Amino acid sequence: MEVKETARKYERLQPYTYADYVSWDDENRYELLDGVAYMMSAPSMVHQTIITEMLRQLANFLRGKQCKVLVAPFDVCLNARGDDDNTVVQPDLLVVCDDSKLDKKRCNGAPDMIIEVVSPSSSRHDRFRKLNKYLYAGVREYWIVDPDDRILNVHVLENSKYVIGAYGSDDTVPVNVLEGCEINLSEVFAD
Length: 191
Fold this sequence. Notes:
alpha+beta, 32% strand, globular, 4 helices, six-stranded mixed sheet, three-stranded antiparallel sheet, tt1808, chain A
């Protein structure tokens, strides 16, 4: 998924808020990080295939359980301060176990787990900007999937820091926030 700074019509000096964000009436998708708007491009077929398989595995595990898995586009207001929130992301997948964080429009606060699939143009955005936002907000588990290298980096929150693990295309990966759940990467990265 490509990430670009917004077109001139959304440039301004003061930071954008969630209220600004929901008022935009064009067809583009955006994320706000500290009030700066980033335009998102449509995902590739490989991206969609990976997300679909991960969604299938998570949804099958969560059937009948309290936690929910949601797929983009779905707004996540990490700071959950209402309409003045200036950080709004649309992760590829998110798992939320606290129903009180969900309303009909968005997730208010940190999801338990976020999964992002990177592309060459979004790698820096997902690996640095968003990683730091997720860490600060308290996202307990953050997965970064690299389809080109067929690698998964797992970030698990421990003592206010992320502990990182790396997995390859033949691995089965435990989901730390969902006891007993595992994701089979050979199915995720199947050709």
